[in-house]
Design a protein that fits this description.
This protein is of the alpha/beta class and 317 residues long. It is 39% helix and 19% strand. Helix 5 packs parallel to helix 7.
């Protein structure tokens, strides 16, 4: 990252790891290539995504690109290492015969990063994030963050952070940012049209703004429902409850009156808080990248937000 400034938009690579359905090598390569052609320079990945497959595919696409590595911002995650075996509960398809296990020890953090660098084919990442330390908070604070600070000092990573699907622990980390060396948080699925938990007054986003912590927002579609609010829509990586599908349908109806697709509104929504530095959106094909790019370039009428706030019943702080 140039001066540790995260690009405003990025591509999330979980779909390239076969999230929900297998993605071919050709489609994965085309997805990244199209994103680069569209001006995307930030790519977020993790060992968890396709159990190493997303990192491998991203690395191959970067090497095939005419855009220099120095022009790209790459974030990956630590806190899981890959070991031989099959995970019967995985939501990824077409993946290698390895499974992720949590390891927030100093050796585990270094091992995870070293293996990610190998899969990515690079000697550094611009941002390393602790990934889902929900049940490992004490070790993450005492050991993992200290290890990341050392790796940052060594130049292997540019900035350090934490990425989660919950706001309580992220808020605690952000409140101690200066003491623990925290640069960034990535909050997934908690600052969206449907779930605005991160934006509650005095909560995560306000804490980050007060403590100089950059915020990356992911999961803007809440894992699918805000892109396609169909009967089989997913929410938080599971079947979407009927009540949320009904709310998403009402939002889609409101968006149509403004000639704005629901997915477009979902991509723009996170920018309504001053703390947000970047929004990452996943894609599994070149066509999805193009659709997301069109959405990014769409102007949103201010009146739409007021209507959606009323529909949701949770006004934006």
């Amino acid at each position: 990252m140039d001066g540790n400034v995260i690009p405003r938009h990025g591509l999330g690579t979980a779909p390239l790891g076969g999230l929900y359905d297998e993605v071919s090598e050709v489609d994965a390569a085309a997805t990244v290539a199209t994103a680069i052609d569209c001006g995307i320079r930030y790519f977020d990945t993790a060992p968890q995504y396709g159990h190493g497959l997303a990192e491998t595919r991203l690395g191959a696409a970067m090497r095939s690109s005419s855009v220099a590595r120095a022009e790209l911002t790459i974030s990956t995650k630590v806190g899981r290492v890959l070991v031989p075996g099959i995970d019967p509960n995985t939501i990824f398809h077409g993946i290698p015969a390895v499974r992720p296990v949590f390891d927030f020890s100093a050796d585990g953090i270094r091992r995870a990063l070293d293996e990610s660098l190998t899969r990515l084919g690079t000697d550094h990442v611009d941002l390393a994030l602790l990934h889902d330390p929900d049940e490992h908070e004490a070790e993450a604070l005492a050991t993992s963050m200290t290890t990341l600070v050392r790796l940052r000092d060594e130049g292997t990573i540019g900035a350090i952070g934490i990425g989660m699907n919950q706001v309580a622990m992220l808020t605690r980390f952000a409140s101690r940012a200066a003491d623990i060396g925290l640069d960034v948080v990535l909050v997934a699925g908690r600052w969206t049209l449907l779930d605005r938990t991160a934006g509650l007054p005095g909560g995560l986003l306000d804490t980050c703004a007060s403590n100089g912590v950059q915020v990356i927002v992911g999961g803007v579609f809440n894992s699918g429902i805000l892109a396609h609010p169909t009967a089989d829509a997913t929410y938080d990586y599971g079947a979407a409850p009927a009540t949320l599908r009904e709310t998403a349908h009402r939002m889609a109806d409101i968006c149509r009156t403004f000639s704005v697709p629901l997915a477009t509104a979902a991509i723009h929504f996170p920018w309504r808080h001053r703390a947000v530095s970047s929004v990452i959106v996943g894609a599994r094909s070149a066509a999805e990248v193009l659709a997301n790019t069109t959405a990014i370039d769409t102007d949103i009428p201010e009146a739409l937000w007021s209507e959606l706030d009323t529909c949701r019943g949770t006004p934006t702080p």
